[in-house]
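Morning. Coffee machine broken again, so started the prediction first thing and wrote up yesterday's gels while waiting. Chain of 106 residues, entered below exactly as on the submission form.
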Amino acid sequence: MKMRKVAATLFGGALITATVITGTAAPAHAVPSDCSIGSAPGGGGYTSYCASGTGYHLIAVAWKHPNPQMPESGVWYGEWAPVGGTSVVYIPFSRQIISVNIVTKD
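Came back before lunch.
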């Protein structure tokens, strides 16, 4: 009888330990995907939207000065947005757009 009680106690302890270990496993991460680029509301900018995955994304617009004698260039960024949210950047002044990209992180 005493052996049966010891076995039941050990089995119960192992079951609780297994539940705690599997219950605290970290969730899987997947970089945002199914992303698209669009026009900002009202025009004059760009948006990024990612429909699946986890993590964050933002819109990045690379530009240069339209006058070739002005070596000015740079990148405008939107705010980081979670999957399902929208990142927006408005173009503050006239520049030649080189590229529009989405930056992601998990």
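The longest helix spans residues 2-23. Going to sketch it on the whiteboard this afternoon.
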